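Q: My labmate handed me this sequence with no annotations at all. I'd like to see what the chain might look like in three dimensions before we decide whether it's worth expressing. Could you predict it?
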Amino acid sequence: MQIKKDKTNIIFNDLSKKFDQLFPIHRSIVSDGFLSSVKILWNSFDYRLVKFRTGSKVYDWTVPKSYKVNNAYIITPDKKKICDFKKNNLHLINNSHSINKFIELKDLKKILITDKKLPTAIPYSFSYYKKKSGFCISYNEFKKLKKGKYQILIDSNFKNSNMIVAESVVKTTERSKNFFLLSSYLCHTQMANNELSGPLVLKVLQECLSKWSIRNLNYRFVLNPETIGSIFYINRFKKQMKKNLVGGMVLTCLGGPAKKISFKKTRNENQFINEFFDYFKQKKIIDIRDYTPLTGSDERQYNSTGIDLPVGQITRTEYLKYKEYHTSNDDKKFMNINQILKSVNELEKLIFYFDNFFPIIVKKQKNFEVFLDKYGLYKDKKKNPLTKTILILLGYSDSRTRVFEIVKKFDLDLNITINAISLLKRNKIISLKV
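A: Here is what I predict for the chain of 434 residues:
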């Protein structure tokens, strides 16, 4: 599957426009910027907002107050304004409390964060759960600072509000309560590959999947503040997820220059989704990473002990492995919109195969071979790959074996297999159990 060429420019322009609208918005765990970003991304979709009030708790985690910045900057001794929040959100440590005072350079340096390794970049820093205030500055600007009195101003406020998780569902065309999860996060500010690539891919995938003529599974699309958002969301819907969630992916860092996408496996090695993606690794289509709780995104919460859901993570240019990560250099130039489209094309194809190969074939004629000539489906099986595939599928349709297991065992052509299943369903020879 692939986005049609005549639509590529339209989608490219739409994504580019959405990026330009989203990039300057200041976002935090609980902020007006999160909701306004969801509205920009999902303006053409039906979605609902799941709300968690400030002070709500799940184990050790507590929903914080909403955070808003009115202004923030530093005035140098020679009256120049630097670290201006309105020019770049990253200049302010996210969740900084209000300050308005004059301090000496030696004290100013205590609240500045810089990075010698990337002297032109503004680093990203946050303090969601500890009271802290400060600024981020490029190392080149840091070196220019001279002795004297500096005015530091941070005008911010906190108030009780709701942490929001947005979800939207594309329903199955068949009869099933089972669903596949596609999730990303929106809580960082003014970064591209690390922040906006996942939601942008999520948006286009939602458009693509909604246009499929047949969907064996339901598809749930989720946008949440990273970590705490997924913890509260999972906790609320844990019972349903444990019963009906058959697989899922957390989308992150999908717009960078890497040639291949890679899948981070789930903690439980025996889950079907790992076997599925390992097959495509063997075909040299994707790369595979082992599960680790040390780094990553919301897949850590879906895989945490006691939860153990079949949700991995998909990425292209991996977090922590590119020098622009968590800096102002992670911008639109680094996160190429064409790479977003490439990720969409590759992921839609993989999800399409998952949708078609996850079900179990149920042969309506329980015993013996089906007389395929009756349906015009029998050709010379030595020369006709479609007939050969149909015979293999029917030969293993024991109401216990997934299509994927048959594909893997006989190394069947993926698209011929999908065509074969379609013909068998159309002729009412089989049904699919999802």
